[in-house]
Amino acid sequence: MEKRVQSAFASAGKDELWEGYGSRAKINQLLYNWLDFVSPLRFCMVMLFDSLILFTLSLSFLARFSNAATHGTLHRRSYFYVGQTYAAQGNSSIAFGQIYVEHLTPAKVTQPHPLLIIHGHGMTGTNFLNTPDGRLGWTDYFLCKGYELYLVDQPSRGRSPWQKDIDGAQSAYDTFTIESHFTATQLHNLWPQAALHTQWPGNGSVGDPTFDNVFASTTPSLDSDAETATKMQAAGAKLLDQIGPVILLTHSQSGQHGWLLGDAKPSKIKAIVALEPIGPPFKNAVFPPFAAARDYGLTDIPITYSPAVTSPEDIARVIVSSTSSFTCFQQASPPRKLVNLAHIPVLIVTSESSYHTIYDGCSAQYLKQAGVSVEHINLGDVGIHGNGHMMFMEKNGLQIADEVVEKWISKTLHD
């Protein structure tokens, strides 16, 4: 795995060595103008000068990036905001609904479509930068594979402002929730597969440096998933108009944002990779109370069905399986189709020890029944064991990025 990541750095082209020095064409033109007066051998001299500069810069480049696989991938970082709306406040106005977008561009872009990454509940886009114990994260992996990246903070959290007079109420995760659901599930055993969790870096409990780091990164989020979905769809659609088409990568709560953005802008999304997307259809599972949720199947707000749906009651549903902690609903026959998602290939990835092992299959089947092309990969079934809900932070996170996610993207879009 390490050799595969290192090899991506070795493929860096020599054009990016000229960054910050002006274009080679401009430098050569200046030399031509000068040499016109002093030498009939200008071409040879320019080529020699070009070669000497390139050699010098190459030595500098090699010295700086000989340990690239350890220190990360050469890239340019910028940021911007999109999606704001102005609301009157006194004699002036304020902005709300905007999302922070971090744009990372590798020195050499080799992939035709960028990745747009949306984090889950209580988190921000920092989830995917480096891991909480300081290792390279998924952003470095995909940068070294030549992908341009966009990472957002969902509306009203993190670097996307929350306006107390406009936005809804917020709440934050406590330490028990993070420990028992994400980082130390094997110590709490709240669902049958929780004991299989082995890949978290550290003991996953308060006082462990890795846990303390990830918990410090959590942030209050809107209590209403419907409000979050509405604002993320509005801002995300504007972002897609600006940067699309993209490959969309979602995690957990943002799973429904993937379906809603695909519905709003189907031509702007080439594929969706959903890491343990929020589910299952229509009703919460695993953690009581098992309340009704996601009135439109896998979304809290309207999504386009054919035949059309005017209210959630139009979606006839049946129970196909049920346990004490989980009920799997599908549509009654004949099922309505999610027509705007029909031509977007989808990958759902589920970890071996996560609570999502209980119901992600039901969510995948709901999409398939609605006409969506879905591949569902359980990591344990492909020999990747011990992961939890935060798979991209875990010890074998780069293996998942390489052997599952990027492999599927390449197979689906590039073969």
Automatic annotation (TrEMBL):
InterPro entries for this protein: AB_hydrolase_1, AB_hydrolase_fold, Carboxylesterase_BioH
Superkingdom to which the source organism belongs: Eukaryota
Domain AB hydrolase-1: 115-401
Pfam families according to UniProt: Abhydrolase_6 (PF12697)
Alphabetical list of SUPFAM superfamilies matching this protein: alpha/beta-Hydrolases (SSF53474)
Name listed for the protein in its UniProt record: AB hydrolase-1 domain-containing protein
Origin species: Tricholomella constricta
